UniProtKB/TrEMBL annotation:
This is Adenosylhomocysteinase. The keyword NAD applies. Binds 1 NAD(+) per subunit. PROSITE patterns: ADOHCYASE_1 (PS00738), ADOHCYASE_2 (PS00739). The keyword Hydrolase applies. The lineage of its organism: Archaea, Methanobacteriati, Methanobacteriota, Stenosarchaea group, Methanomicrobia. Keywords: Hydrolase, NAD, One-carbon metabolism. GO terms for biological process: one-carbon metabolic process; S-adenosylmethionine cycle. It comes from Methanogenium organophilum.
Length: 408
C-alpha cells in the first residue's frame, strides 16, 4: 500500500461509528442513484467518509475546501476508490481551486456536502443551471452556517441544507475538543515552543474558542479572551479567563489564535503594538481573520520558514502560521482534528446525507437542524463502541416529563 492508503487504514481503525454505518450502507445501498458533490478537507478521515458514501451506492465527486489542507497522497488514493472522483491538490492557485470546484459541479450532483459553503455559493451565483437537479445539502462548519442563514433570511437559499455544525454531537466534540486539541498540537509542532506560562490570546469565545481556551489553560497558559458578544465575554470571565479588547491584548499576548469565522480580527491597528516574537494563527475558517495584506505591505522585512512567515514590524518579529489559513490543517505537519472526533462528525454527515436524499424533495429552501434521532443514534453508536451503557427513562418518568400536572 502507498502512503495515502496507509493513512486511510490508520484512520479506519479509530472510526468505529462510521464503520457501523458503512456496514448498513453496504447492505442497504440507501444512496443508490445519488451523485454527491463534496468540498471538504481532503485527508484520511474525510476519505473514510467518502468511502462510506460510495459503499452506500453514491457516485462521489470531491475537491478541497482550503488550498493548503489537501494531502496529495490521500487524494490520489481516494481517486482509486470505485465510484469516487477526486480533484483536490495541495497548494493550488485560486484559479485551480475554483476549477476543481467546477469539476465537482460538472457532475451535476443532487446532494452537496460543504465545509464553508463554497459549492452552495457557486451554485447560487455562477452555476444556477444546477438548481433544478439539487435535492439538498449538508454544511459542516460555523462559517458556512452563518452565511447560509444570511442567505435564508434574504430568501436567497433555493434548496434545503442541514446545519450539521449546529447539533450537540458536532459542537460539543468537533468544535470544542477537535479544534482545541488539534490547533494547539499544530502550533506546538510547527513552532517547537512551549504553551505553559505564556499569555495566550483566543479571539472569539464560541464553541471553538472555549475549547481552545480550555486546552491552553490546561497546558499552563495565561489565557486572554477577546469578544464582541457581551454574554460570551461574561461567560469567559466567569470561566476564569482574562477578558479585554484585542487592542489591549495585542501588547500583552505571546500567542494569538483567532476562532471567530469573521474578518479583520487582528489588523494593522494591532500589529505595531505586539511584542517581539509574537506568534499568530487562525483556527476559524477562511484566511481573513489576520490581515496578511497589511503585513505584506507594511513590514520592513519578511522571512519564510516551513509554515511560518515572520514579519518585522517596528523592529519586532511577528510570525504568522500557515499563511493565516486553518492552523490545524494547513501547516506542513497539521493533521486536523483527532480521528475519534471526526468519526462522530462524519457519522453525522453520512446519516444526514441519507436523510436529505430521502426527504429533501419534500423540503423547501432553507437551513434545517439535524434531526434528533440522527444525533442520538451517533451518540448511542459511540457509547456502544466504548462499552458504555446508560440508563433509560421509565414509562413513569416519560409521563412525568410530558405532563404539566404530575407531581404538583
Amino acid at each position: 500500500m502507498d502512503s495515502g492508503e496507509l493513512k486511510m487504514g490508520w484512520a479506519r481503525q479509530y472510526m468505529p461509528v462510521l464503520a457501523e454505518i458503512r456496514k448498513r450502507f453496504e447492505a442497504e445501498k440507501p444512496l443508490a442513484g445519488a451523485t454527491v458533490g463534496m468540498a471538504l478537507h481532503v485527508e484520511a478521515k474525510t476519505a473514510v467518509l467518502v468511502e462510506t458514501m460510495a459503499a452506500g451506492g453514491a457516485e462521489v465527486h470531491i475537491t478541497g475546501c482550503n488550498p493548503l489542507s489537501t494531502q496529495d497522497d490521500v487524494a490520489r488514493a481516494l481517486g482509486r476508490v470505485p465510484g469516487v472522483h477526486c480533484y483536490a491538490t495541495r497548494a493550488c492557485s485560486v484559479d485551480e481551486y475554483y476549477d476543481a470546484m467546477d469539476k465537482v459541479l460538472d457532475a451535476s450532483p443532487n446532494i452537496t456536502i460543504d465545509d464553508g459553503m463554497d459549492l452552495i455559493h457557486r451554485i447560487h451565483t455562477l452555476r444556477r443551471d444546477l438548481l433544478d437537479t439539487i435535492i439538498g445539502g449538508c454544511e459542516e462548519t460555523t462559517t458556512g452556517i452563518q452565511r447560509l442563514r444570511a442567505m435564508a433570511e434574504e430568501g436567497a437559499l433555493e434548496f434545503p441544507v442541514i446545519a450539521v455544525n449546529d447539533t450537540p454531537m458536532k459542537r460539543s466534540f468537533d468544535n470544542i475538543h477537535g479544534t482545541g486539541e488539534s490547533a494547539l498540537s499544530s502550533i506546538m509542532i510547527t513552532t517547537n515552543t512551549i504553551i505553559g506560562g505564556k499569555w495566550f490570546v483566543v479571539a472569539g469565545y464560541g464553541y471553538c474558542g472555549r475549547g481552545l481556551a480550555r486546552m491552553a489553560h490546561g497546558l499552563g497558559a495565561k489565557v486572554i479572551v477577546t469578544e464582541v458578544d457581551p454574554r460570551r465575554a461574561l461567560e469567559a470571565h466567569m470561566d476564569g479567563y482574562h477578558v479585554m479588547t484585542m487592542k489591549d491584548a495585542a501588547a500583552i499576548g505571546e500567542i494569538f489564535v483567532t476562532t471567530t469565522g469573521n474578518t479583520s480580527i487582528i489588523t494593522g491597528e494591532h500589529f505595531p503594538l505586539m511584542r517581539d516574537g509574537a506568534i499568530l494563527a487562525n483556527a476559524g475558517h477562511f484566511n481573513v481573520e489576520i490581515d496578511i495584506p497589511w503585513l505584506e505591505e507594511h513590514a520592513e522585512e519578511k522571512e519564510t520558514r516551513d509554515s511560518i512567515d515572520t514579519y518585522l514590524v517596528n523592529g519586532n518579529r511577528i510570525s504568522v502560521l500557515a499563511e493565516g489559513r486553518l492552523v490545524n490543517l494547513a501547516t506542513t505537519k497539521g493533521m486536523g482534528h483527532p480521528v475519534e472526533v471526526m468519526d462522530l462528525s462524519f457519522a453525522l454527515q453520512a446519516l444526514c446525507t441519507e436523510y436529505m436524499y430521502k426527504n429533501g424533495g419534500d423540503l423547501t429552501g432553507g437551513v434545517y437542524e439535524v434531526p434528533y434521532e440522527i444525533d442520538a443514534t451517533v451518540a448511542h453508536l459511540k457509547l456502544a463502541s466504548l462499552g458504555v451503557t446508560i440508563d433509560e427513562l421509565s414509562e413513569e418518568q416519560k409521563t412525568y416529563l410530558q405532563s404539566w400536572t404530575a407531581g404538583t
